[in-house]
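Sequence design from tokenized structure. All designs in this work follow the same two-part layout: the structure record, then the generated sequence. An example of the structure record is given first.
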């Protein structure tokens, strides 16, 4: 079987189970591998790196586990990678950012006509729907190729699923790793994919900041980073993405001001940012600068209260000083009078009492 130059495998939407067999990765001429919407389990084999002609890798909606193998980065002709809705975990391979996005038009525009010694396209869904009966396997294989000589790829972008086939495929580029259990930070290398229109990393456990290098995604149309654990601010360099049509960072831990409401960002409503209570700025209801700081009214009220307190303190201090001066003068007068009377009278008890009173009140002769 591996000696056949098989180029397209479409086994999507069946009830296929078990692990991905290594035999699938022995077809050196394979361009399309579509096993989406099945019940496949296990890891993505490292032998996937041997498919050096692969353009379309579609394994979404299965039960695949493990990390994304770095060998996938050896596939420098990959245009569409869809591993969404699986159970993949671990970090995003930084090398994904270096995948060659240039495609050979001759490979895509080629028309695949069946030959008796060549099986170019394997599509079980085509002949299952036909309900035809075949006398031998050669007739079956030939008919499978005759039924659909043009490959097609189903891929989700801009929140909708589309089917692409024929020459339009050469313009399709995209990576969808959504709805997995991927962790760690988003590699800055992903910003090197300047030609990619679709990047979906939503519904994972990614942390850290949105890379500033994302401002290099010049042709990005759909950027979805929602439902992760990203923090920090949204890079204002994203304002340079003039092709951006769908953008979402909803339900993360982002903070700070959202990009200015202009250009493509002037078309995004609050739904693009919801679930981030520390984001502020239009079109959000939370205005920047109000929550973390006192409002002007509060500041004025605080100044008034402080001024009133100072006035009260000054009043009491002045009162105490005046009272002390008055008592001091009185004590001085009484003391002088007492001393004069003591020279005439022998009753010294009163003098002692007056003296003790003045000392107890810290009264001393007042000096001008």
């Amino acid at each position: 079987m591996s000696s056949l130059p098989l180029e397209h495998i479409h086994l999507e939407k069946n009830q296929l189970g078990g692990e991905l067999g290594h035999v699938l990765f022995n077809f050196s001429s394979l361009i399309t591998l579509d096993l989406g919407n099945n019940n496949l389990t296990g890891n993505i084999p490292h032998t996937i790196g041997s498919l050096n002609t692969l353009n379309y890798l579609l394994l979404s909606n299965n039960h695949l586990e493990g990390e994304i193998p770095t060998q996938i980065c050896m596939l420098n002709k990959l245009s569409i990678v869809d591993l969404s809705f699986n159970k993949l975990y671990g970090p995003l391979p930084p090398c994904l950012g270096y995948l060659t996005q240039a495609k050979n038009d001759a490979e895509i525009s080629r028309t695949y006509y069946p030959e008796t010694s060549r099986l170019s396209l394997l599509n079980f869904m085509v002949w299952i729907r036909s309900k035809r009966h075949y006398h031998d396997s050669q007739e079956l294989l030939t008919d499978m190729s005759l039924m659909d000589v043009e490959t097609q790829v189903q891929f989700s972008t801009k929140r909708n699923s589309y089917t692409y086939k024929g020459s339009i495929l050469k313009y399709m580029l995209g990576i969808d790793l959504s709805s997995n259990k991927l962790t760690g930070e988003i590699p800055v290398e992903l910003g090197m994919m300047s030609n990619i229109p679709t990047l979906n990393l939503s519904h994972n456990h990614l942390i850290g900041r949105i890379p500033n290098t994302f401002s290099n995604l010049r042709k990005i149309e759909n950027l979805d980073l929602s439902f992760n654990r990203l923090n920090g601010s949204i890079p204002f360099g994203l304002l340079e993405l003039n092709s951006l049509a769908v953008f979402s960072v909803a339900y993360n831990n982002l903070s700070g001001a959202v990009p200015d409401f202009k250009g493509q960002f002037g078309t995004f409503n609050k739904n693009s940012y919801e679930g981030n209570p520390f984001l502020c700025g239009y079109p959000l209801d939370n205005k920047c600068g109000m929550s973390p700081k006192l409002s002007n009214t509060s500041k004025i009220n605080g100044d008034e209260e402080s001024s009133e307190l100072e006035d009260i303190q000054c009043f009491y201090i002045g009162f105490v000083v005046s009272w002390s001066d008055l008592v001091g003068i009185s004590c001085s007068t009484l003391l002088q009078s007492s001393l004069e009377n003591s020279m005439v009278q022998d009753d010294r008890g009163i003098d002692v009492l007056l003296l003790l009173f003045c000392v107890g009140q810290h009264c001393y002769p007042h000096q001008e």
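The CA atoms of residues 77 and 95 lie 14 Å apart. We note this feature because it recurs in several other targets discussed in the main text.
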